[in-house]
Amino acid sequence: MSVRIWTGSGSPYSWRVLLALRFKGIPYEEQVLSFSARDHKAPDYLARNPRGKVPTLECEGAVFYESLGILAFLEARFPDPPLLGRAPVESGRIWQRLAEIDNYLAPVMHAFFRPIFFGNPAGQEHAIQQAAGVIHLELGGYEALLDQAPWITGDAPSAADLALYPMLRSILRAAARPSVADLELALLPIAESYPRVAAWMGRVEALPGFAATVPPHWQAADDG
To answer: With 80 as the cut, is the pLDDT of residue 26 above it?
Structure first.
């Protein structure tokens, strides 16, 4: 059995799959693509993933892209330990949270960090603050969930936790940039406004193999 994965450093979608591989104890070979070198648009990569995005995973001759599809494959091929639930209700709850993360948090995450990481925040302050407001609404919902259980969907980590964590880390990393220090985004330190979310993040970071999944160019960063 051979698993290969193509990722991009800092991609939250790549990170969630790496976390799943580590959680399940699946050996893999990782190739980190360079976005600046446009490795993800090279012909040999597009032959595997015609959308030219990350991640892409190959296992036993089958190729998958789109992170949720990859997670579903990994769960079916390597069912233990489970990430998508055992019982129907449990599975449905996890998929519900995954859909909420990708449909509601992901768009506002991109709206928040794109002008900070890839543009000039000057002149886009209002849009950044609007996005931060929506992020606070989402964080409030997760804070309430984590008042009921230690993990997003219950008493054990699931794919929902592994999908949510990289997005929140991306948001917090953007919020720590000096270029937005004057915007009073109220996202840092996270433990002050959302102590249960902060404690949950610590639990994710304590999962076996977590350290090996941190984006290479983040390794020395203190993201708050």
So the answer is: yes
Amino acid identity, position 129: Q
Homologous superfamily in CATH for domain 3-77: Glutaredoxin (3.40.30.10)
| pTM passes above 0.70 | yes
64 by Cβ neighbours in 10 Å (0-12 / 13-18 / 19+) ranks as: buried
Intervals of CATH 3.40.30.10 along the chain: 3-77
Cβ 139 vs Cβ 101: under 8 Å: no
Residues 134, 139, 144, 149: what is their CA dihedral angle, to the nearest 10 degrees?
A: 150
Query: By percentage, how much of the chain surpasses pLDDT 90?
Result: 93
**Residues 6+ positions from 160 with CB-CB distance below 8 Å:** 94, 97, 98, 101, 151, 152, 153
What is the DSSP track for 54-94? Answer: S-EEEETTEEEESHHHHHHHHHHHS-SS-SS-SSHHHHHHH
